[in-house]
Task: structure prediction
Amino acid sequence: MENPIHNFIAGKWIPARSGKTFETRNPATGHLVAQCADSNEEDMNDAVAAARDAFESWHRLPAPRRGELLFRVAERLFHDKETLAKALTSEMGKVLMEGRGDIQEAIDMAYYMGGEGRRQFGHVAPSELPNKSGYAIREPLGVVGLITPWNFPMAIPSWKSFPALIMGNTVVLKPSPDTPYTAALFVKTLEEAGIPPGVVNLVTGSAPELGATLVKHPDVALISFTGSKATGGKVAVDAATHYKRVALEMGGKNAIIVMEDADLELAVEGILWSAFGTTGQRCTACSRLIVHAAVKEHMVSMLLDRMAKLRVGDGLDSSIDIGPLINNTQLERVHELVQVGVQEGAQLRTGGHPLTEGHYAAGYFFAPTLFDNVTPTMRIATEEIFGPVLSVLEINSLDEAIKVNNSVEYGLSSSLYTQDINRAQHAMRELRSGIVYINAGTIGSEVHLPFGGIKNTGNGHREAGQAALDTFSEWKSIYVDYSGQLQRAQIDTN
Ligand code: NAD
Result:
């Protein structure tokens, strides 16, 4: 795409009204990725107006036709997958293999939601009165505002846009200031696939207030937000003040439980992938290992051995396992929490510091970190760190493990390694989180099952699967009385 990157409003790429831009840079090298429109409320108003206008024709387009457009989107994403993945890695930092996975999630979601064009089933129910029928159908909400983070810069916009579009809504996307370029590539793909003007609009900007203008806009019917708990709280308050529907996906403090009967080799693979994949910057990242005392020493030594071999560096280099953190703020936050862990008495077994020498100097790299002897109330065991830091907590029974797992304020993803079916069944019921894995790590959801969390992770909505349709639609119940006379429900009971 040509630099600078403009907003996409009413089917046109146009600069911010102020003419201002802001930079997005590669977190591994510091190289400039793009200059992007630094928008304000005026630009947001333009985008919402375009989406409102486009809604009239878009929601009347038969849903199967909307689905066909999503299939075109899937095909284009598939065709451009490698180019898009490289661009995503250059802007966000995750290793290229995971960059490809980010695009693949968008492809999967486009195909899945495209299919919903022919599957928007409602309900048909008998009436309690004769010669009367009743049924319920889904209807779109109108203009929906999507506010997204940087950690899945293609997948998360797709997880929100595609269910919104298939239900007949029009969209204004406000991406993270850390990944506006990838968001523009996403929207460009939709444009090339033939999504009509105004149906999808993109407004980029560096200021947090930009997101708030979308939340407060009277013509926006729903806000779908993914990000931190702190920001989610503000979005919820703003949305409530404007009597607006809001779906929140926020933080996590996910754990893997390893019992003494587990396949330890398998568990180590799952722990490494879940704790250090995406440099620990997944909402479902494993940041606590809750392990039975009988195998703890062995597990820790296996992990240390494998962690020593992890290669940190530029995600575009195929020999690299772990990329940089997204920015300096995040680097400082991770470092600060590690220091808190040390002060609180946890035993730092490896890592614990930024990597700054040589080719690391230009990026935001942090050494993979393992804390041992962590207790459940320490801050490193309760707060989301969002970095390559794993805390080991020792337990003596499954019930104790479940109690520790459930003791945090979040409830997104939990995992248990055991060979015992009875233990697994017990844990599936007792683990308090929106997602549970048995004999797999805490990451790896698929687009056709609901995704989201309980407690302070979310506010009751789910993304993906059929559940996403509930977020992006309203139910309308329709009664048709063909008796030719007044029939009174609940009154004419005989
Ligand atoms: P963030 O909360 O800083 O920002 C998220 C988005 O909100 C950005 O687009 C930002 O510009 C916007 N924003 C900031 N202030 C706003 C305001 N007052 N009103 C409206 N919008 C505003 O989060 P982040 O650092 O981009 O992402 C990391 C966080 O996202 C982590 O906490 C992670 O757990 C969470 N996350 C959750 C999920 C999930 O599904 N549960 C998935 C991915 C990431």
Observations:
- The chain has a mean pLDDT of 98.
- The two ends are 70 Å apart (CA to CA).
